[in-house]
Design brief:
13 helices, alpha/beta, 361 residues, 6-stranded parallel β-sheet, 8 strands
Length: 361
């Protein structure tokens, strides 16, 4: 019997398919936008040039200073540029960092801006109302409907040049969205459909995407599947919210400026193992989607990260060992609403295992 639940469906348009970026001008026109600020890092110059050529004189500005975690000072510069250009729309091209800057511009601008997003990684945040920004060593997050892109254009061709060292951890971020959506604060049967299919697709196809020796046609199919999995992950995240895993990654990212995708690859199995005693039925669902026994799900996530060449320890990505205790205290404070209440000793042990690259307990 289906349990009672509440579910909010977010508005927005999704365009998915190889070559779909070529329709960006029509999508901008459909939103009635005439003055577009493009947000894309220098690494995305080639794609940005191709896209902006379609828009012509509708592009009134370009913000390139995109970095992870959206530091307040740089976010303020992007907001100021949007105002000085009298922009009526934001177009972001890139991963979660570019999307994050677009969200903060929409959040902080006095004008109501249209928002078009072209993801080039598997971040998934483009499907959510969640925003984040960093002030010093503290990362703040919140929800607001104005930051949800009006139109998201998924073009698998844009991920063809994504190196495995970025694609793998980015895909683990998407996988983490799916996993946490099954026990996050807004978890429900509708969300579970997207989340479980996302887990299945990402677990199967992400290793193919990251395997440089795989057949080219197989990798092309896998890229499309992983991007679809990332879309499902974003849909699930938008409705269900986050739990211990992402709270931990936000704390560590703010404190130590660690790469977000790499953190996801390292922490996911450990966070799931911590929560396992409180969610036995969910553990069985996750394990089935991963194709393993229920007790093996956390270890499988660690093995998947290793299989795709992602980092296997927090030490390897730059976290200092003497930061574990302080980080654990912050995680306990930030993740109070987690499905299994965070206890300082347990969280400290979880971070110590993740730091050393031990198997999850």
């Amino acid at each position: 019997m289906t349990a009672d639940f509440a579910h909010d469906t977010l508005a927005g348009r999704t365009v998915f398919g190889a070559g779909s970026r070529h329709g960006v001008a029509a999508e901008v026109d459909a939103l009635g936008a005439t003055r577009v600020l493009v947000i894309a890092s220098r690494d995305e110059d080639a794609i940005a040039a191709e896209v902006t050529a379609q828009l012509g004189d509708r592009v009134v500005g370009r913000f390139r200073d995109v970095v992870q975690h959206v530091p307040n000072a740089k976010a303020a510069a992007a907001v100021e540029l949007a105002a000085s250009c009298d922009a009526d729309a934001v177009l972001t091209i890139g991963g979660g960092s570019a999307t994050g800057f677009g969200k903060v511009v929409c959040l902080d601008s006095d004008a109501e801006l249209a928002f078009v997003c072209i993801p080039t990684t598997y971040a998934g945040s483009e499907m959510t109302t969640i925003w984040g920004r960093t002030d010093g060593d503290h990362k703040q997050t919140g929800k607001n409907p104005v930051v949800k892109p009006d139109t998201v254009i998924y073009d698998p061709d844009l991920t063809a040049s994504l190196p495995a060292r970025i694609a793998g951890p980015s895909g683990m971020n998407a996988l983490a969205h799916c996993v946490e959506a099954l026990y996050g604060p807004g978890a429900n049967p509708v969300v579970a459909l997207s989340a479980l299919e996302g887990i299945r697709v990402l677990n199967h196809s992400l290793p193919i995407v990251c395997d440089g020796a795989a057949d080219a046609s197989a990798r092309a199919v896998a890229r499309s599947d992983v991007l679809f999995g990332a879309h499902l992950a974003g849909v699930a995240l938008a409705a269900a919210g986050t739990a211990l895993h992402h709270k931990t990654c936000h704390v560590l990212g703010g404190m130590f400026d660690l790469n977000h995708g790499d953190m996801n690859a390292v922490v996911l199995g450990h966070a799931l193992a911590y929560n396992a005693p409180a969610i036995p039925s969910v553990m069985q669902q996750i394990a089935t989607a991963l194709g393993v026994g229920a007790d093996a799900a956390p270890k499988q996530l660690i093995e998947l990260a290793r299989m795709i060449g992602a980092p296997s320890s927090l030490e390897a990505i730059g976290m200092p060992e003497d930061g574990i205790e302080d980080a654990a205290r912050r995680v306990v404070a930030e993740a109070r609403a987690n499905v299994r209440p965070p206890e300082l000793d347990g969280i400290t042990a979880m971070l110590a295992d993740a730091f050393a690259g031990r198997d999850p307990r």
